[in-house]
Design brief:
The protein has about 300 residues and is of the alpha/beta class. It is built from seven helices and 14 strands. The protein is about 25% helix and about 20% strand. A hairpin with a 3-residue loop joins strand 3 and strand 4 (about 50-55). Helix 5 packs across helix 7 and helix 6 (about 250-255) packs across helix 7. The radius of gyration is 19 Å and the shape is elongated.
Length: about 300
């Protein structure tokens, strides 16, 4: 398998802001778990008039920590990478303490709604941004500016933000240092995810700051390893089909032999996303509607 240079080490204290660079601070929410590692890392950009990236879950203690970290300053922007429940619900609570508008690609499922695909669960359905941003748009702040980099795949409304003064990309859940991302249809889309990885390889970012876990200090080799990993997953699926294993539920224990069983349903969703991508390319066929429970075969 592709060797991804994972790192899990992170020095932090819940409720306290860590100074990462002259323009970047981070406050980690106390919501650790198998999909969040130590918790949601909310970033604060700038000094004086600041932006907050991913205010996090609807956790009053975490919002209080953000307010404490920005005491004597003004929050002028809230930038949201996507609308999973550990990223955007904190906006509503933080708005009670500041008048900053929210910026995001759109509400949950926005990228799929534009294609006529309904996405009705799995995220923060209450969130609607004050400002809908698009790829290449630049948001100007007080001594900082961020470029919006649209990266659908993990979710259809996922967007990264590049702090241009530091060539630093806030990658949300698109690329993380400690784990690969879950891609779960219908909102998650493997074709879009792979295209979004290719987009990052065309860029010249110096560092990634994911919402979970530590920084990625060698971005391109990390992304290249992610691409290779996804290609190997496709090869595993093809090998399973060639051996007569035709259903995703039977593939997962082999493909994810080291993964705890309680995470197999999430793994099955990613296999399903890869399977859809293989069907779209004519590599795999399916009798009847595509589903996680369907039987598949090599074309």
């Amino acid at each position: 398998m592709a060797q991804i240079p994972f790192r899990r080490e992170l020095e932090f204290e819940y409720g306290e802001a860590a100074v990462l660079t002259s323009r970047i601070r981070r406050v980690v929410a106390n919501n650790p778990g198998p999909f969040t590692l130590y918790g949601t890392g909310t970033y604060i950009i700038g000094r004086g008039n600041v932006a907050v990236v991913d205010p996090g879950p609807a956790d009053p203690a975490h919002i209080d920590a953000i307010i404490k970290a920005t005491a004597g300053e003004r929050i002028t922007h809230m930038l949201v990478t996507h609308t999973h429940n550990d990223h955007s619900p904190g906006c509503a609570l933080l708005r009670e303490a500041c008048d900053a508008p929210t910026y995001a690609y759109g509400p949950h499922g926005a990228g799929k709604h534009e294609q006529g695909v309904a996405v009705e669960e799995g995220g923060d359905m209450e969130f609607a941004p004050n400002e809908r941003v698009r790829h290449g748009q630049v948001i100007e702040g007080d001594g900082w500016s961020v470029e919006c980099v649209y990266t659908p795949g993990h979710t259809s409304n996922h967007i990264c933000y590049s702090l241009r003064e530091e060539r630093a990309l806030f990658t949300g859940d698109h690329v993380m240092g400690w784990s690969t991302s879950i891609v779960s249809p219908p909102d998650g889309d493997m074709r879009s995810y792979m295209e979004s990885l290719d987009l990052l390889l065309e860029r010249d970012d110096a560092v990634y700051w994911p919402t979970h876990g530590p920084a990625i200090e060698a971005p391109k080799p990390h992304v290249e390893a992610f691409v290779a990993h996804r290609r190997e997953r496709e090869q595993q699926i093809e090998a399973c089909l060639a051996a007569g294993t035709l259903r995703i539920v039977d593939m997962v224990p082999t493909m994810y032999a080291d993964l705890p069983k309680f995470m197999h349903p999430a793994a099955a969703r990613s296999v399903f996303a890869a399977m859809i991508h293989l069907v779209e390319r004519g590599v795999v066929t399916c009798e009847g509607p595509l589903s996680v429970d369907a039987a598949y075969a090599l074309a």
